[in-house]
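hey so i finally got around to running the thing on that chain from the lab meeting. sorry it took forever, my laptop kept dying and i had to restart like 3 times. anyway pasting the input first so we r on the same page abt which one it is
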Amino acid sequence: QVQLVESGGGLVQPGGSLRLSCAASGNIWRINTMGWHRQAPGKQRELVASISSDSSRNYLDSVKGRFTISRDKNTVYLQMNSLKPEDTAVYYCNTNLRESPLHFEADYWGQGTQVTVSS
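ok and heres what got predicted. didnt touch it at all, straight out
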């Protein structure tokens, strides 16, 4: 089994910063990608940023230049700067990995952390 534990959400004023962290633990043989999705009330979940095993990064257009994804072993971070009210959402950590050479790739999700941008 694999567990993802997120931290770092909260309330911040527009223009402020937050840093989200997500640590993966359990049976992990190879991580393919780690990333962050978000879901605002009444909206579909969307990919915010992802980082692959070769360190290539992918960002949602609306966060480019403001958010930075990074990874240290089994932990992924999302540095969020210049936050806007429209960034308000529940942020979910996600990883695609293999638990062993005998396992297929599988997706795992964190429990979500609330980010609220408001004055």
